[in-house]
Design goal:
The protein is 22% helix and 24% strand. It contains 8 helices and 16 strands. It has helices at 2-14, 95-98, 115-118, 146-149, 163-187, 261-272, 289-303, 316-329; strands spanning 18-22, 46-53, 56-64, 69-76, 92-93, 108-109, 133-137, 158-162, 192-208, 220-234, 242-249, 256-259, 361-363, 369-371, 406-408, 415-417. Strand 15 (406-408) and strand 16 (415-417) form a beta hairpin. The longest helix is centred in the middle third of the chain and has 25 residues, at 163-187. The protein starts with a helix and ends in a 6-residue tail after the last strand. It holds the Pfam family Endonuclease_NS. This is Endonuclease domain-containing 1 protein. Residues 1-19 form the signal peptide.
Length: 423
Amino acid sequence: MFVPALFISILLRAFSAQAKVVTSFDECKGFFYKDTEPGGMAQNAKKICQMLEFDSYSYATLYSVHHRIPLYSAYVFDPDCSSTAGRAENWHVEPQISQPESQTDHMIYERDSDENMIKRYQAVSSDYTNSGYDRGLLNPNSFPCEESHNATFTLTNVAPMDAGFDRHNWKNWESTLWSFLQRKLDTDGGSAVVYIVSGTVPGDHVQIPLRGTSEDPERVTVPSHFWTAVCYKHHLNDTKSFSFGYVGENQLGGGIRLMTVSELDDQLRELLKTPQAVRIFVDDCFDDSKKLKEIQGVFDQLINLPANQGDQSGTDEQSMSRVLKKATRSREYVTNSYLTVGGSRCKQDHLCGRHGSGYNWCNTVDGKWDKCCDRNGIFTDCYLTVSREYCDLQHPCGYYGYSYLWCRTKAAPYWDYCCKNCE
């Protein structure tokens, strides 16, 4: 009986989502450029080699137990993977973080954990409930291949991300990054490896759950910024190697700016308020401001749209629904009580309001929720966006074939959501 039991134990372990809290990233150093982890980050944070299958690591994470969020996740881009995002049916937690003496060296389903024990040093799903913040993944679930996809759905890989910023601004940049890297690797015949590090800047003022919404409030730090750094290392020709980064403010309409890796290092040092130099890639990975201008041009072309034109997802019925929505709303001025920043209508029994949070939001007719267009009681006009940017005079607010209101602007990312249809 001993041998079969041992075999079953090993087999179950091999097919469970796993991770390992380590003292050194040596076991998963392959996710870092030149096998070297970023420098200047919190030295007392927990190092996690994240994995899905036994002895097969998926990415690496530096996790702050003080803030209960990851400081960064590092991974390698795989051009053979789909860019289609999925949803988590189950979230995982890491027992070794909250209970170092635990002999369990793999992730466990949150539903199977002792929540009181887990909450000691890490976030749980209930911290995010009705907070207005999404579980923002640092290693996005749309990047890994199928075998590593589920490994991203761990609460050690997420931090509170403003729902509007997550679903609109950051999502747009992530999809643009995927398209950019996919095209570049195709051009180079796959003769390169892409190292990516995505991270947070812990904020000073906001924690979730918000006071008044939970019996155990203000446990999880809300980042003030999210950032990503990319190192593209060509195998044969270093003149084709390059790097870049971008950082965005974690709020609705928060701007995201492209920059060199060395500039990102300096900005993170300032934002993190650390006396230590921050170095994401050991030698800045072929940092070059001239190449950045070329990258900026390509990014502008890819991101200067309200949606990915290459995305043909959705049924004919859904497409017809979007057309009908546009037709029924055409030239309609909608009150702030009913319309969200994404162009959805609020349920009649749940109009725009604070609802216990620090901003206006509502439950929408499509079974989701979104922030409302109400900007401190000011009703936006045909040339003003929800982020207070001005529309191009030749392109006032309207639907323009999409299911939400938007217009072109002169500032990156060169478009924004509106709250009026003036098409």
